[in-house]
């Protein structure tokens, strides 16, 4: 049995009816409501549950998972629905359920504890805590009966209860020691934002590329062996590095191309509807774990768009990447899009489940699987035989009795591609008639921020204005529902148009600000600059304590206890970029737009996390590396000024399609100053009534005849403005480094 490695989202249906002592029935989280019918006396994570543990003098059993998690469903059915197991759990523990997507702060600290205690991590996660929140025993999935190397869940409960009753002092001492060790480990990741940043070593980035090459799977694409996850942040770094003159640029480009091609042609990518599954359980990407997460697809959409900007390779041309990007964007909006609310604002749901319910039973991936018989019945023998061959449908299902996922694992030739285009429509229609995986309608602020950035850039690069419009609507939802301007607070989660629960974490503020700045770049609407500026200001106030950066603002005393009473900062990427890395990227972009040296210094301080991990662990430092690449490139600041029209659109579009790392773009009407003042690029503050809301645009004037101009600056130094697309591209190319 393999524990989940990421969050899930399907509605597991409990067999029992809600009991009087189960407190999850009114919770908005789909995952918590899935367990409202268990005979276990579940409580949500909070002070009340821990107060009950103090009053009863019993440990807390903490179970963490998410709605789409297949093995979470399995353990729920095997153990949490079992009355005898529930009776023992209720008698000797306070049982607490956590949706890791709502409370990543809780998940992060107890995942670290679980890995330290058991040597493994994943979901479902099972952790035993003292009444003040310190972990003392942990594991992941426990079966209902003993298995080789893994005790049954009831055996674990009995052993923990015995230790609590008979060896309490030792249990509590071990728990304190673990918390102290976790606190000490935080010191190594501390970022002092008050100190002058060290000069970034440009040699780290080529060394990181070489280190990544040593762990690449050049045959199947990706890094390491099974299970394989989409390395989104690492791909972003490789694409940025490939865009600069460097000896390792070609290596980076080839690695990125191999992985992008392998994923696009694999079962990880839904060949019918688009969108990517969470990960592959096989090295060759042929058997996915079928849940589809918003955060994966938002990141991968943006990465494929950036690959298009780079120009692709012969092995994975930009045209093929464009098809993948378009279908991923369409899938996100069609399958995760929630009903429109006020002013047509809307948002994207968190995920689709790994399982589908067929004849009352959960089957992983059943919606997506095909047998040769299924295809022959639908397409006829000739077309079916070809589809079986080109889409690797085995005589025996590679996943289950429901069949195999469709995937070519290579580029199709023209004849094969024509047939595939013909049969996709009837296959999609037939699949739509099957039982569908459930959707977790929870809206997570940060993940929607990632989607805003991806959709805005996809719309610009693919020339799909509708995608930009979708990004604007999602950003509007985040502003209306999640951002409490009066309190200066972003709320992490909303359900049915109402925000509730904890405040956003550092990653939420960073991802949302990133999305708003991307919208500014694409639309020229300075409203998004102001909103991003407000988020950045609030994040600095909320997450910087005594000069040090933290991932959360101390939402829970128990979590604070468990990490040794020190603010936590995890520099490593997980399924999404680390909050610290994402914040560094936003600070860098904001400093380029605003001219703020203070924010540029803060970004540099965060990048000081990079030297110890750039070469040793680049696979979990992708976004720090990508941000460092942008910092070393300048970043390049581009102000496009002049009257709206085809000439300005051509200049603006050329910049939006440029692969220049960290390029920051702002566009506005400019001031009709003309003459030498315009050519000098005077950026003084005294622009009077014509001053733009975005500082990068202030004082920038169109040409003497009103013709649009582009002002390019790097390292706070600006060049003479240029007026044509070839000049813009030449300047960008000559200044890249």
What brief labels describe this structure?
alpha+beta, five-stranded mixed β-sheet, 26 helices, disordered N terminus
Would you count the extended β strands for me?
24
Binned strand content: 5-15%
Biggest beta sheet summary: 5 strands, mixed
Shape annotation = globular
Mean pLDDT: 90
Give the radius of gyration.
Answer: 26 Å
**Alpha carbon gap, first and last residue:** 48 Å
Tell me the strand order in the biggest sheet: 1-3-2-4-5
Helical content class: 40-55%
Q: State the helix count.
A: 26
Contiguous low-pLDDT stretches (5 residues minimum) are 1-20, 672-691
Q: Decide which structural class fits the backbone.
A: alpha+beta
Summarize the structure.
This protein has 737 residues and is an alpha+beta fold. The protein is 46% helix and 12% strand.
Describe the structure.
This protein has 737 residues and is α+β, with helices and mostly antiparallel strands. It is built from 26 helices and 24 strands. The strands form eight sheets. Strands 1-3-2-4-5 form a five-stranded mixed sheet, sandwiched between helices. A hairpin with a 7-residue loop joins β6 (279-280) and β7. α9 (232-242) crosses α10 and α21 (579-594) runs antiparallel to α22. The radius of gyration is 26 Å and the shape is globular. The relative contact order is 0.09.
């Amino acid at each position: 049995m393999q524990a989940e490695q990421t969050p899930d989202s399907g509605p597991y249906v409990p067999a029992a009816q809600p009991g009087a002592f189960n407190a999850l029935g009114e919770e908005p989280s789909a995952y918590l409501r899935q367990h409202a019918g268990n005979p276990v006396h579940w409580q949500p994570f909070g002070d009340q549950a821990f107060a009950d543990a103090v009053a009863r003098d019993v440990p807390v059993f903490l179970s963490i998972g998410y709605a789409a998690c297949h093995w979470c469903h399995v353990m729920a059915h095997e153990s949490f629905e079992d009355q005898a197991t529930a009776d023992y759990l209720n008698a000797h523990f306070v049982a607490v359920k956590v949706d890791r997507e709502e409370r990543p702060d809780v998940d992060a600290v107890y995942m670290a504890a679980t890995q330290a205690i058991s040597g493994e991590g994943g979901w479902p996660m099972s952790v035993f805590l003292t009444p003040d929140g310190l972990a003392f025993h942990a594991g992941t999935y426990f079966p209902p009966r003993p298995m080789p190397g893994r005790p049954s869940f009831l055996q674990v409960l009995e052993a923990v209860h015995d230790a609590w009753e008979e060896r309490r002092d030792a249990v509590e001492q071990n728990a304190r020691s673990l918390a102290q060790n976790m606190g000490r480990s935080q010191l190594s990741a501390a970022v002092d934002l008050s100190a002058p940043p060290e000069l970034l070593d440009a040699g780290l980035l080529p060394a990181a590329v070489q280190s990544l090459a040593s762990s690449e799977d050049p045959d199947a694409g990706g890094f390491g062996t099974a299970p394989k996850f989409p390395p989104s942040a690492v791909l972003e770094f490789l694409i940025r590095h490939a865009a600069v003159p460097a000896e390792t640029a070609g290596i980076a480009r080839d690695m990125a191309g191999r992985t992008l091609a392998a994923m696009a042609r694999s079962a990880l990518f839904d060949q019918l509807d688009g969108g990517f599954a969470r990960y592959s359980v096989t090295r060759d990407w042929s058997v996915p774990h079928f849940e589809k997460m918003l955060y994966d697809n938002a990141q991968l959409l943006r990465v494929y768009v950036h690959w298009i900007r780079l120009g692709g390779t012969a092995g994975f041309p930009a045209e093929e990447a464009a098809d993948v990007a378009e279908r991923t964007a369409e899938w996100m909006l069609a399958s995760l899009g929630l009903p429109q609310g006020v002013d047509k604002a809307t948002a994207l749901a968190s995920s689709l489940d790994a399982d589908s319910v067929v004849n009352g039973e959960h089957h992983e991936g059943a919606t997506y699987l095909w047998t040769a018989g299924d295809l022959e019945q639908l397409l006829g023998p000739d077309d079916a035989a070809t589809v079986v061959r080109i889409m690797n449908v085995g005589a025996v299902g590679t996943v289950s009795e429901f069949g195999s996922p469709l995937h070519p694992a290579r580029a199709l030739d023209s004849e094969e591609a024509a047939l595939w285009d013909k049969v996709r429509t009837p296959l999609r229609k037939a699949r739509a008639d099957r039982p569908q995986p459930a959707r977790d309608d929870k809206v997570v602020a940060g993940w929607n921020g990632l989607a805003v950035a991806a959709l805005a850039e996809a719309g610009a690069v693919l020339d799909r204005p509708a995608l930009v419009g979708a990004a604007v609507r999602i950003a509007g939802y985040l502003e209306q529902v999640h951002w409490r301007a009066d309190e200066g607070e972003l709320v992490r989660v909303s359900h049915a148009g109402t925000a509730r629960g904890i405040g956003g974490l550092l990653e939420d503020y960073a991802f949302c600000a990133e999305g708003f700045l991307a919208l500014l770049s694409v639309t020229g609407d300075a409203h998004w600059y102001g909103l991003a500026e407000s988020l950045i200001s609030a994040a600095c106030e909320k997450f910087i304590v005594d000069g040090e950066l933290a991932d959360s603002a101390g939402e829970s005393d128990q979590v604070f206890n468990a990490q040794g009473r020190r603010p936590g900062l995890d520099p490593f990427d997980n399924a999404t970029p680390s909050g610290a890395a994402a914040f560094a990227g936003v600070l860098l972009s904001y400093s380029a737009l605003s001219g703020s040296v203070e924010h540029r210094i803060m970004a540099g301080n965060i990048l000081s996390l990079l030297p110890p991990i750039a070469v040793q662990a680049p696979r979990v430092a992708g976004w720090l590396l990508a941000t460092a690449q942008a910092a070393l490139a300048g970043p390049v600041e581009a102000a496009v000024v002049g009257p709206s029209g085809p000439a300005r659109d051509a200049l603006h579009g050329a910049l939006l399609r440029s692969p220049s790392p960290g390029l920051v773009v702002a566009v506005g009407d400019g001031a009709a100053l003309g003459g030498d003042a315009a050519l000098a690029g005077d950026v003084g503050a005294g622009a009077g009534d014509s001053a733009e809301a975005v500082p990068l645009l202030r004082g920038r004037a169109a040409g003497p005849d009103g013709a649009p101009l582009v002002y390019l600056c790097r390292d706070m130094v600006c060049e003479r403005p240029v007026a044509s697309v070839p000049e813009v591209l030449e300047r960008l190319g000559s200044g890249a480094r």
